[in-house]
Specification:
The complex is a heterodimer. Chain A is mainly β. Chain A has 3 domains: 56 residues, no CATH class; 124 residues, Immunoglobulin-like (Sandwich), CATH 2.60.40; 158 residues, Sandwich (Immunoglobulin-like). Chain A has 3 helices and 28 strands. Chain A has a 6-stranded mixed beta sheet with strand order 1-13-12-5-8-7, with no helix packed on it. In chain A, helix 1 crosses helix 2. The longest helix of chain A has 39 residues. Chain A is elongated. Chain B folds into 2 domains: 123 residues, Immunoglobulins (Immunoglobulin-like); 114 residues, Immunoglobulins (Immunoglobulin-like). By secondary structure, chain B is an alpha+beta fold. The chains are: A mainly beta, B alpha+beta. At the A-B interface, strand 6, strand 7, strand 10, strand 15 and strand 16 of A face helix 1, strand 1, strand 13, strand 17 and strand 19 of B. Strand 15 of chain A pairs antiparallel with strand 1 of chain B.
């Protein structure tokens, strides 16, 4: 529309010119106007950006502020204080101060965790906790910051708030805010729950005996399944190791002959050969419902059997807590004999060890 | 009479043979009784100064329906990479002379627990660091034949307080289908290998701050909880980032934070990676568009070549029409 108008003005008194010529003359004018419009829009956009930037530089108000204490008893020592808030303004935070309303803070604070803010140091002076960032960087607006400090001593009974201020290196304020009140009292009962790292290991078998006879296949090869359940809340899960005596499945008879292992270790697990043969070994299967990190060692896949070792082999691992449903593991002991196996009682001690992983 | 004798004989034979049949079908165990034991240890390191003795309680639980006798034996423990724990099978040469475990056997009542203690005396001059006291809780073997034992291995951590040098090294790598700096996928996935390269154990935590360009708001902050990293051990932490747009430059800024010389200060290790993430769908659309363009151009070229000299719309045609 404006292009048409411009074209008309540009044409002036040449009303008798043909429409084609008029249009050809109007084209450069339209381009210039478009260019002018774009420049105007860009200028306005730039102005808006500058205004926004200036607004961002002004001190803002921290949001989502919270202050939590691990013990709200008056004058309690070794208390952890946790502060969390969200930045309102982008800025290079050099220091953060936490000033308690009224009362007197004491203790030697130490940093337990600092999320959302770079590494730094903490100190308490004149009732103000100051966290100083070692190498400040720009923290954009909307970043959640969490700082947990230990080693503080509560003030006397009363209701307190914490004034939180984030500052530039020039000590100019970036953002500030005040936490909701926390009641420090002598008459309150502090409730603390410490959940221990726990692991429960259940086995349905204490001992087993095979009455074997090489004359009949059904009696020459026998198996027993030991069922295991494991429950743990260890963050990094657990490991299950299988081991046996150094002497293996050994006879108390003359010469102490032993039934050999089907393989030298888990890594060389094989399909069980079957009678007539003299061999012993085990296979592992299991399920970890709700435990994403549950894994049975791949050497047992395809019904492979491994020989026991005295050093032990890690047959099952879990890299996550089991959750409320126990992991179930079945360990099948398979033993076969032939006429080369001396008559007598063979004994061994198989040890399953479950160890929580550290986190 | 003969029939009765025959029936009795058949009955006797059946009585003798039947158990054999059962034996052949289920050749099995003499002792089968579920046995449960549980062990709990303090979740945090116990602070003990050199020359002092710490009495550390552990809890041995018996969720089963019959009492269980257990013994608690100290064993050397190796903390391996990625949180794995390995027992040496022998007493800890460093700590066994300074550690007292409860005398065997302790009876844990059915459905109950006991709280034995482990006494650890820290030798004078021991330098500030974290130390691990390993032990194994073993039920008393029962039955005959092949004995099966379910034991639980665990350890308690002691912290000798004081300033110490801590140092971590790290490497951020990107996994998945990559074409140089471009990753094909719906997210940027990778892993951080963190290694303790200092002379002391480190408890570290961290965060992965994710930004995306050209479309993205404030960084997305994904926090890692505190993890233990013994000396010369490493741990792999999985990280990922969502681009928020089918084609975006995604930047992961992984910060690993850990105490400085003392707990009053922290230090950090920052690992950064910027990758152009292209969604397979976006790639498919681009390929389809390019293919379409190519087909169109070929079609146009073919039409130009096959069109008659005086086709409509050309100068010649206009002249012809005139």
């Amino acid at each position: 529309m404006s292009g048409n108008t411009s074209a008309a003005l540009f044409a002036g008194g040449q009303a008798d010119s043909s429409a084609l010529r008029e249009s050809a003359q109007a084209r450069p004018s339209r381009r210039m106007h478009r260019l002018a419009s774009m420049l105007l829009a860009l200028t306005m956009l730039a102005g808006l950006s500058v205004a926004t930037a200036q607004k961002a530089q002004a001190a803002g108000t921290l949001t989502n502020i919270s202050w939590a204490v691990s013990d709200n008893q008056a004058a309690a020592t070794a208390v952890d204080y946790g502060f969390s808030f969200t930045t309102a303004t982008s800025g290079i935070i050099k220091t953060m101060t936490f000033t308690i309303s009224g009362g007197t803070l004491a203790g030697t604070p130490a940093i337990v965790t600092n999320y959302g803010i770079s590494a730094g140091t903490v100190g308490l002076a004149a009732n103000v906790i100051t966290y100083t960032v070692t190498t400040p960087v720009t923290i954009p607006a909307g970043i959640p910051i969490f700082l947990e400090l230990s080693g503080l001593t509560n003030p006397a009974a009363g209701s307190y708030t914490e004034a939180i201020v984030t500052k530039l290196a020039s000590t100019a304020t970036i953002d500030s805010g005040t936490s909701p009140a926390v009641v420090i009292a002598a008459s309150n009962t502090a409730k603390t729950i410490v959940v221990a790292e726990s692991l429960v290991f259940t086995l349905d078998t204490a001992a087993f005996t095979f009455n074997m006879d090489p004359s009949l296949p059904a009696l020459a090869e026998q198996s027993h399944v030991s069922n295991i359940t494991v429950l743990t809340n260890a963050n990094s899960g657990y490991s299950l190791t299988v081991a046996d005596n150094a002497t293996g499945l050994e006879c108390t008879c003359t010469g102490n002959p032993a039934i050999p292992d089907v393989s030298s270790a888990m890594a060389t697990a094989v399909a069980f050969p079957g009678a007539p043969v003299s061999a012993a070994g085990y296979n592992v299967t299991g399920t970890g419902v709700g435990d994403a990190g549950f894994v049975v060692n791949a050497h047992f896949a395809g019904s492979k059997y491994a020989g026991y070792t005295n050093a032990g082999d890690v047959v099952v691992t879990s890299s996550t807590p089991t959750g409320a449903t126990a992991n179930t593991i079945a360990i099948t002991d398979e033993t076969a004999i032939d006429y080369a196996s001396s008559a007598g009682s063979y004994t061994d001690t198989i040890t399953y060890t479950v160890t929580p992983n550290y986190s | 009479m003969q029939r009765r004798m025959a029936s009795i004989a058949i009955g006797l034979v059946a009585t003798v043979v039947w158990p054999i049949g059962v034996l052949a079908a289920t050749p099995s165990p003499a002792h089968k009784a579920p046995r449960s034991i549980g062990v709990s240890v303090p979740p945090d390191p116990v602070q003990v100064a050199p020359g002092q003795t710490a009495t550390i309680p552990i809890r041995v639980v018996n969720p089963g329906s019959t009492p269980v006798d257990v013994r608690i034996v100290g064993q050397g423990v190796n903390l391996l990479d990625n949180g794995l724990v390995q027992f040496t099978g022998a007493p800890d040469p460093v700590w066994s002379p300074h550690t007292v475990f409860p005398a065997p056997y302790l009876t844990v009542p059915a459905g109950g627990y006991i709280t034995p203690t482990i006494a650890v005396t820290v030798p004078l001059g021991e330098r500030p660091d974290l130390y691990y006291i390993g032990f194994v809780v073993t039920p008393r073997p029962a039955g005959s034949g092949v004995l099966v034992i379910n034991q639980v291995g665990d350890f308690v951590t002691i912290d000798i307080p004081g300033p110490r040098v801590r140092k971590l090294g790290g490497l951020l790598t990107i996994s998945g289908v990559t074409l140089g700096p471009i990753q094909i996928g719906d997210e940027l996935a990778g892993q951080v290998l963190v290694r303790n390269i200092g002379p002391s154990a480190v408890l570290f935590y961290g965060e992965n701050d994710v930004t995306a360009a050209p479309f993205g708001n404030a960084p997305d902050q994904i926090r890692f909880p505190t993890s233990l990293l013994p000396i010369a051990r490493s741990r792999v932490v999985a990280v990922s980032a969502q681009p928020g747009f089918p084609i975006a430059i995604v930047t992961m800024n992984v910060t690993l934070t850990y105490p400085g010389l003392t707990e009053a200060s922290t230090q950090q290790l920052v690992l950064t990676n910027s990758t152009l993430v292209v969604s397979p769908w976006a790639l498919a659309v681009v390929i389809a568009l390019l293919a379409g363009l190519l087909v169109w151009r070929v079609y146009r070229a073919v039409r130009r070549q096959t069109a008659p000299a005086g086709r409509p719309g050309t100068k010649g045609t206009s002249a012809a029409r005139k």
